[in-house]
Amino acid sequence: MARVLVVGAGLSGLSVAMEASVRGHHVVVLEKRSTIGGRASSELRDGFPIGYGPHFLLKKGPLHQLVRKVSKVKPSVLPLRPHRLEILGTGMMQPRKPMKDAALFRRAVKAHDLEHPSIQNSDYFASWGLNNELRSRALLNSNLLVMKEGWSGLVGRLAVTLDEVGIPIETGARVEKIEKHKVHLADGRHVETDVIILACGYGQAKKLIPDLPAVSFVTASTVDVALDATPLGERHGILDVERSMAIFDLKQIHPGIAPSGALLSAVHFGEGKSENRLAELNQFMDLRAPGWKSHILHERQQKNVKIAPKGGRVACNVARKDGILLTGAWVESEHILSDGAVEASRITAEHINKMPLQQ
Q: For the chain, which residues make up each domain, given as ranges?
């Protein structure tokens, strides 16, 4: 059994803590913020889970399987429906009429034919420009899901499980420096451990390990807003592939997610300055969700959010000689986005037994 110190209580940190505990290790989690969850979190305001941009759960993916495994009550999920997603300039992603178009769509889905505009849009938006075929097929077959509880409910399920198995999570604990088998906190404490797992995001990990390999990210601006109106009607979303923008109404996707009205989650990802992206996204919403600003109940806007690494990711054991392991969506695994974070955490936990312990 190793003493494991996890830095970060976002999705990666909670996942790796649970995986390490299952393998018999003694685990402690440190989180610099006053709350846990990181970007996977959301804040409940008058029954609306206001998040940080749209998150969709891959059915039977690593995160979905983890949530189902730790949950005493089965999570309520409903899928994005391609026949209710509008592609600007094309129509609905899954046409119902005329019959010829519907038949062409079904054939294109089966072959994953990227010449078809619906498949192009699915390939692009299902993974925010990363063109991941697994998630694209999931969207086309109604296997990208929205949780009724929002992502705060998902994080809550993981946190409850960690509490039940006795894994302490200390919030407000800022790590300023790490060395082999030791973590130095901003409050002057020094914590010795066998294995340090950095689950704090690439930016913070880079500060703690300056020679960490460089990773470039797809970045985005987001708007999340609760409304007392339904400006998208019955549509699940509107996609603009030319400008890399999309608006989704999570309330239309899962009616149980909010008490009434709409819960819009909009994203603009790609190149350009974050200030310009956010302004362009607001203009897009003005045009495609007319009158939304007159019906705001709660709102959260983010200028610049790292979505996912564009290319190469970092091996979890790149700092093994210093007693450090890494996890997160930017760490090597077969999956991407939130599923990548969970899958990387499983791989990282498996490496703990291969680490040299403190003598």
A: 3-42+152-214+312-354, 82-141, 217-309
Report the CATH fold assignment for 217-309.
Answer: Polyamine Oxidase; Chain A, domain 2 (3.90.660)
Pick from 95, 66, 69: which is nearest to 82 by CA? 95
How much is the pTM? 0.94
Convert the pLDDT of each residue in 104-143 to its tens digit.
999 999 999 999 999 999 999 999 999 999 999 999 999 9
Kind and range of the H or E run holding 155: helix 150-164
The pLDDT mean for the chain works out to 93
Query: How far is residue 52's CA from residue 39's CA, in Å, rounded to a whole number?
Result: 6
Residue 359 reports pLDDT greater than 70: no
308 three-state secondary structure: strand
The pair of structure tokens assigned to 205 is 């990990």
User: What whole-number distance in Å separates Cα of residue 221 and Cα of residue 127?
Assistant: 15
b/e code 110-145 from CB counts within 10 Å (16+ = b): eeeeeebbbbbbbbbbbbbbbebeebbbbbbeebbb
Q: Which of 50, 52, 1, 54 is nearest to 25 (CA)?
A: 1
Instruction: Dump pLDDT digits (tens) for 64-115.
Output: 999 988 888 888 999 999 999 999 999 999 999 899 999 999 999 999 999 9
pLDDT score for 213: 94
Confidence of residue 347 (pLDDT cuts 50, 70, 90): very high
Under CATH, what is the fold of the domain 3-42+152-214+312-354?
FAD/NAD(P)-binding domain (3.50.50)
For 55-122, give the DSSP string.
--EETTSHHHHHHHHH-SSPPPEEE--GGGEEETTTEESS--SSHHHHHHHHHHHHHT-TTSHHHHHH
Q: What is the CA radius of gyration of the chain?
A: 21
182-185, strands of its sheet edge to edge? 175-179, 182-185, 190-192
Kindly state the helix (H) or strand (E) to which residue 287 belongs, with its residue range. Answer: helix 274-288
Cis peptide leading into residue 98 (ω within 30°): yes
